[in-house]
Design a protein that fits this description.
This protein has 431 residues and is of the alpha+beta class. The chain folds into two domains: 94 residues, Phosphorylase Kinase, domain 1 (2-Layer Sandwich); 216 residues, Orthogonal Bundle (Transferase(Phosphotransferase), domain 1), CATH 1.10.510. Helices cover 29% and strands 13% of the residues. The protein contains twelve helices and twelve strands. Strand 5 and strand 6 form a beta hairpin. The protein is elongated, with a radius of gyration of 35 Å. One of its GO terms (molecular function) is protein serine/threonine kinase activity. Keywords: Kinase, Membrane, Serine/threonine-protein kinase, Transferase, Transmembrane, Transmembrane helix. This is Serine/threonine protein kinase.
Length: 431
Amino acid sequence: MRNWSDSPFPRRVALSAVGAYADDAVVARDNGESSVIYEAPGHPGWLVKRYKPQARVEQARLGALIELPASMPPDDLRLVDRSVAWPVAQVVDGYRTVGAIMARAPEEFSWDIALLEGRTKRTTVEVDLLANPAERIRRFGLPEPDDALRLGAMRQLVAVAALFERHDLVYGDWSFANAFWAPGTERILVIDMDASGIGERDWVETTNWEDPLQRAHHPLTTHTDRYKVALLVARAVTGLRGERQRAVEEMRRQYPAYGRLVELLLQSLDAAAPDQRPRLADVLAAMDQKDPANGPDGANVTGMIAWNPGSRRGSGRSGPPRSPDRAASRPRPGGTRKPGTRTPSAGRTAPQTGLRFASQPAPRPSVQAPSAFTGSPRRDVTSDFSPSRTRPPARGTPARPPSAGPAPAVLAVFFVIIVAAVVALGIAALS
C-alpha cells in the first residue's frame, strides 16, 4: 500500500506536472468538493483530487495537515500509513491551491458487487456496505462478517479516530461513506482527510448524522467527532442504520461481554453537553475490555431470556448471568421499577421484533399456560362464575347453607296485592 511515509512528491506540486489525465484514469467525478479524482500521471497508486472552483481551500490549514505526521511518534505514524489515506502534497496553480495528492486504496478494498440479473460491478467497498444486516450483505455477494469481525473493523476505525483526537485533529464528517472496508477482513481505510482541521474545522453535516448539540454553521471540534464515531460504531456492528438508541440496545444484546463499551457509546450519544462525551481513547480501551461474566470472547451470546410459559415471578431466569455492575442498573424480569428511577436505557424504546432483551420485563402470556406451581393447566377464569361450581369457603369463615328460595308468606302477600289491584280496576271501569 502507498502511504504518507513513502510519498515521492514534494509538499507542493505544480498543476502542470499532474494536470493531464486520460478518461480511463478517472476514479470519480463531481464528488463532494472535488470536480474530478484521477490517478496521477506516471505515479501508479497515487490519486490527484482536483477541487471545484468554488471550494474554499485554506493553504495554511492544508499545509499544516500534510506536515502533521512528521511530528507523530512511530506507533501513530504506522497507523497513519496503514489505515489513513493522508494527503501528501498540495497541487498549486500559481498562488492558488487547486487540489491534493493522496494514496489510492489497495485492491483488497475492492469487490465484484452483485447487481440484478446476475451482473457484477467492481467497486471500492465503503463501510456503508458493512453497516447492513447479514442477509443484505450476502445479496451483495460479499462474505458475511460475523460479530467479531464487525467489532474488529470498528476497532480499527476507532483507533484512527482516537489518533486524530490525540493530535487535536477534527475530522468532522464521519459517516458510512468516508471509510473503506476490505471484505472478509477487519481492515479499514479512512479517506477524505484533506478537509480536516487542527483544533477545529468548518461546519459540515450529513443527513441522519446530525449532532443534536452542534449549532449549524459553527465550527466543529473533536467533541462532535466523539458523537459521530459512537453512532457509526453502533450502526456498523449491528447493521441497524436508523434510530440511534435502537442500534445501541441491539449492540448490548449482541455483545454482552462489552457492557463498558455500550455504556460509553450511550454517554456519547446522550450527553447533555459536548464536553461530557467520553474521550475516543476511552472508547478504544473499552473495545479491548471484556466482561467474562457475560459471555466468552467473540461469542454471540445473545443474553435473551427465552419465553417460558411455566415461568412465574420469582422463578429462575435463562441466559447468561449478569455482571454486578450491570445487574444493579437493570430491572429484573417480571420485576417493577419505582416511578422516577432510571436505568442506562431508560427512555428508549426497544425494537418491536418479537425478541426480548435481558433488560426488558417478561411479557405476561396471553394464552392458557401451565401453572408454575402445580404443573396442571391453569383454570379459565370464567369457570369461577359457572352455576355448576361451588366455591369452597374462605379459611376462618363459616360456610353458609344453600338458600331455600323465597318464604311462602312473602308469596301470599304478593298474591293479595295483585288481587286487590285487579278489583280496584274493575270498580273504576263500572263507575
